[in-house]
Structures
1.
Amino acid sequence: MKNNNQMTKLQLITFIIQTQIGVAFLSLPFDIHKFAKGDSWISLLITGVVMQVLVFFYFILSNRFPKQDLFQILQSLLGRFVGKCLTLFYFAYFLLTGSTILILFVYIIKKWMLPYTPYWVILMLMCAVGIYIAIENLTVIARFYFIATIVLLVFIFVTPMAIKDGNIHYIMPIGHSGIWKILNGATHATLAWQGLELFLIVSPFVTASSKEKLKAVTLANILVTLLYTFLTFVCLIYFSGDEIMLMPQPVLYLLKSFSFTIIERPDIVIISLWIILVGTSFISYLYGASLAASFVIKKWKRQPFVYLTALFCFAFALFFNGEQEIEKLTKFTTNIGFIFLLAMPVFLLLISLLFKKQQRGNLNAKNY
Amino acid sequence: MRKTIKRLIVSSVIPIFLTGCWDQRLLKEQKLISLVGYDMNSNGEVIASMAYPVRKGGVTTGTQSASSQSTILTTHGKTALDSLMHADLKISERIDISKAQVILFGEKIAKVGLYQVIDHIYRNPKGALGAKVAIVEGSTAEAVNLKQEEAEIIGRYYDEFLKSGRATGFYTNYNVQSVCPLLLKHTKDPLLPLLQIQPTQNRAVTVGMAMFNNEKMTGKLNIDESKMFILLDGSKKQKVSLLVRTNNHYKNRQKNYVVIEVLGTKPKTKLHVKNKSITADLSLKLYYRITEYPKNHLTTPMLLDELNKAIKENLTQLAQQTITKMQEANCDGFGIEEQIKVHHHKLWEKQYKNTALKNITIKPRLQLELTNSGIID
């Protein structure tokens, strides 16, 4: 049966990458540098390895329920009522993350590009784009993400230009901040990997064997880890330790200091491309939230929920525009993210293994 | 057909909604500053002098472009940005320094500290990070006020002036961005171009480099010392020419000198630890050619050897002199503290954190190799 809600394994890779890479990555070197100093890049590698373990957990879980998505797994493991409650929690989590993405996005745009444009205009534009794509079925979303991956290539090709002006002494001696600080930095990097949990939601729609899925997600994880590590590394050798502490978006600052003959301010161009990356993350969470909502309230289709969630994110984001509030919110979201990214899937996996529960019957993931 | 028309209407209407008028900056409402000079008066206030092009003679047609002329404005305020805000009160349009090509600093303000003056550039997303920086001996207002004829806009004049000075190896290549890490602690210290203004000739003259300790200017190097610093620091792209005195006894004074051009360098810094004190060895191998030798007749290898020896002696002396001057100014232009931090981290934390450069013995060790002496012997 050919249904139009499927994606290929290549699209799975780009889906995961695009969902993970969003707002956090512009400020990643700064956030980690607070803890791990010149060894931040090691922290990121460690986080990447930990996330790979998580990928295996996800894989085992999804392998036990090959035709079900996360919400159905919740229901078949924990029963109808608890399952639906937890689905609602997931819905709330997706809303929260979506809103945080919007808030951080507007914050950075206002800071770097459009200081005089009102909040609601930028928010509305982003929400409109989000709705426009999230309302389509998964195939369309996945295809869009695949095309949008070109943007990442730009980042990969432009940033190495900073290496020649870099000073390798800034990160030496390697390991000078000590193992605990490096590990501390690694725990704070997890926000950048948020989005991996969506694998459990889209996995039944991927037309590939479970082994191929594992390969695809592993590859996505490796690519994301390497990209993060590389960008952080370049920033660390380009800016001195004292300097990086002053700039919350070092990746942009790095690009701002270049000047080409034709493009005088490459950071503006790069921000415009970065908007696409933020957009894809936002769309993923809109999709996840609307899917969760339509799973709880079966009466409606998914589409009306997309409007609702986007509207909610829009309204929520309007209230947050102070620098300190945003910081608190980001911290809160990161902590909540730990529960839904790490704790919950592992917990589910344990239950499934303990009680030997596997997929039964024909409670398959449906087209929405 | 209908569908096409519908699409056409939609796609032509959408752009209207896409424009935002909150962040527009129209050229006709801005004065683009090409050159800013910061200085300090005796009250500790910041004086900003700026030059911006003004079109005179209205619109001209054809190939002849309207002759643009720079207008100069000088204001003062409590801080750097404050003085620019004062400038806004004086001119007909809004001031915009995001396109500045060169930023000059007076000696006085450089001695107080650079970072505080350019903080507003780092903070502004539109800030001109690519602008070149230079220090001016004397008043910057005079420097900005220069009536030179070599370039249309005064900002571009300084831009090209500094660019060529860099190419000929007078000074290091720093702009607002690349100088930033050096102004902070625990890294190299910057050396910036030092200019002097000769108002009678309507020219700026290079007089060497200004030495900094972190963000404060602490001394000056003359031209020869600057060149020596460039060589010791090991920048590869610059072709440095040096005048070397090899003899004293010729009455015809020209014959006492030789001019060499350094073609390539191989710098190597080595740190030796002995009894917990560090000696830095700056060994440098220079490949050079002779571009002028007024005495003529460089025929025998013996003569060449002798000449080589004389040049080496002379240059080593110059290097020693440069290093002593830098130590006096506490200007760590070679990044020796950074090297100690990297290679002897524990010793650095214990003893050499923020140390004065005097406490480190630095020895230059030069090796010279003649590659050719021109197309005649």
Note: Chain A has a mean pLDDT of 83.
2.
Amino acid sequence: MDDKTNKKITGYHGTKKENVENICTNNFNINEDKNNKLFLGYGIYFFDKYDDAVDWNIKAFIKELSYCPKYKILQEKYSIIESEIEVESDQILDLDEKENLVKLEMLVDKIKGKLITKPEYQRARNKTSAIINMLYKRGKLKKKVIVKTFIETIDMKNLSSFKNYARKMFCVKDVNVIARNKENKELKEEVFEGIIFFYK
Amino acid sequence: MDIFDLDIKDFEVEIDKFLDSFSEEELFNELINEGLEVDSYNEKYNEEAYYVEEKKQNVWIHKNSTSNKKKKTSSMFFKRERIDLMEAA
């Protein structure tokens, strides 16, 4: 039976300062540019933790400017948007659930089998994201939000058993589920220092 | 209907039907249009190039790879292959 209960999610999206006003006024706009190659396909990506969005901004800063930002410089150039997402529970595809993962794996495997004679496919990147995009385009997948937790390995010298860190992400496929956006300016210097520690 | 709402058996039937509606070429082109990134590395080499599948990492290595580790793996692969062929003979 479909679950029509509304679920409220708070998501954190890291972005450049110059985008904030437009997003808070006009909402997000999904960029279907082929260069927008994120792992769950086209959509707006949110973290469930504020700190992970700060981490995203630090990575984006380093990628753009090739050096580790100081607290104030990061504050000047990047910001975090805190968004309220309201979506029916049956409109969420939770890829942390084993059954959904098995289905996705089955699909990816069947496509791999169908394209077995194409070595360029076997070597290609961005497969899962392209498959998800294709399912949406063909109307086979219609969920408004995809949820997935990704495990990142942090370079720990002394705590090797604790090196796995989980980041939960939401990929919003339909911007109408975003009820509110506001800039979150609460980046505390000690939070920043805790995150930047791993980049120094 | 969203295919992820189907139970796993119906899901399989549905995706088989969906994939059967494409030829191999159509499916590949559709995925490219949806962001599949066919490595420029692949385009750099001509069709005569051959690749070795490194089973552990599931990566493909070009015979002219400049990486010593990859070359070593590649050379080990061909050495094994030669031994297998000799034994078969």
Note: The first strand of chain B starts at residue 51 and ends at 54.
3.
Amino acid sequence: MSSINAGIITFLGTNCEQDTRRACELFGWRAEYIWQDERINKKYDVIFLPGGFSYGDHISSGRIAKLAPAVQSLPVGETLIVGICNGFQILCEAKLLSGALTYNENLKFISRVVPLEFLGEVIHIPVAHHQGNYISCENMSEEVILRYTENINGSDERIAGIYNREKKIISMMPHPERAVYSELGLTDGRKIFEFIENEI
Amino acid sequence: MKNFKAIVDVGLKPTIKDIKAITLADAVEQITDVKNFHCKLQNRYILEFSAQNRDTAQKTVQLIAEEILANSVIEEYEIHWVDLNE
């Protein structure tokens, strides 16, 4: 049994918290939810901001959720923070990561399995987003850890996931938590969770 | 307290590809004979509130625009004040 303690922040409109929890538990991690209105005082090894539609994506994805006490009290630089999809959008909106996520180039909601370059190999993980078009900034301090092998949504340099090592923040648009159970047909998401485990 | 009304228009910065505007321009050129059609899409927010004075009101609207209505990485905003004493 692993000794890793994971916290999963849930917002009004989050819908991937259970998948994220089950993926954590597959790796033997303990996982619990953190409600958006709670300030984070407890020590976790990793904190997830899972996917979903926080506040209905009103104004823009992640724009309102960034104001939540749980986000405002994130232990940046101390605990590994992982944003998945809406979590990535929230972290960009909170300016904890550089760049911004805007509407997909084709203006459509994209929901499909996509090939991605990850640590020198090609893996397959689902994406499901309307605002996944990543606009990067000059001199971005993040390292690109996930890249679409083809243009999926218009993202600069096909960026799908980034890692700010100084702030200890990993974020990505694909959903690795949806690709860990062989019963569901995909297991490449395990490689992302293994990466996360190594970075804790 | 005084009453204030501000209109905040938010749109993408010129350096950011405005996909919806491009789609609109393509559609316009399909149904008209105009050439070099350009447009810009904006969201308009109309804010009405009470504040101690104009300075406080301006700071409040600027805060709302920067923190909630626009993402300064890709968007820009304009504030227009409506004189309620007219």
Note: Chain B is about 35% helix and 35% strand.
